[in-house]
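FW: tagging you since you asked about this chain on Friday. Here's the raw sequence from the shared folder, copied in full. Didn't touch anything.
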Amino acid sequence: MSARRFASRSLLVFAVAFALGWMNSATAQAVKDEAEAPAKPAAAAANAPTPANAQTPAKTAAGGVNKDSVLRLFTGSNPMMWLLGLCSIVTLGFALERVVALRRSRVIPRDFVERFHERLSGGKLDRDRAIELCRANDSAAARIFAHVVRYWGLPAATIRQAVEADAAGEIVDLKRHIRVLNGTSTLAPLLGLLGTVIGMIESFDALGSKSGGAKSEALAQGISLALVSTAVGLGVAIVSVSMYYFLLNKVDILVRDLDEQARRAIDLVSAEAIRPPVDRRTGFSSEHPRHESRIH
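HL: got it, structure written out here
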């Protein structure tokens, strides 16, 4: 495995581990807060005398979506939330890995490219030395330059056609893992909608054990909890779609720049650059014109 791929996979594993650790710590903190909730103030409030003119506060908190309600979504009431959490981790991990891997300094190092063109145009490199210089640099530009140098001395059109076929793998490598974001952007809303349907079914099923005003309260709470999965799914999809098109645009810009740099290298190693053009009318090189003899 090359150092470049090892670094990319290490970054991906780190991002996924960080997201899993964050979710685990958040869940553990929520469970701890729920377990350490003080019971004495609630008991004292229950035993305290209630004034005659005091109004009972509306139980709006029971019908809202708070931290405990979201925790219940993950712990058992809505199994789709676990899949949505997995989609968010995958989106975060692959997006972060591609953002780092597609940095311009990694794909097209400016110092290396300028030094390579300068030494090549100055005649300081031959075929073997140019290949060694390209192998010493681990970047997409260096690998494409190596393909160009392998066809040293051939016509420019032939080199361009051969390099286009050889460099196709580099373009595929730049787009690696980007399709995963397209997949999560499609899957996340479907999982969120499925979670909402499951939550609604559970809410209406639980109405059978309620009576009176408790039915409307339980229904409102169940619907609010069920709609959370749709909101989470849409949030994951929005992030995935945004990163997908952002990275595709970044790849297109890098590919155009790579093509331009490859054309510069081809113009320096092609047969037209190495051998001066020949004048068809005289049969002599343009750099060595024929000297005409004069008879005095």
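FW: Residues 63 and 240 are 31 Å apart (CA to CA).
HL: agreed, and The chain is about 75% helix and 0% strand.
FW: great, closing this out.
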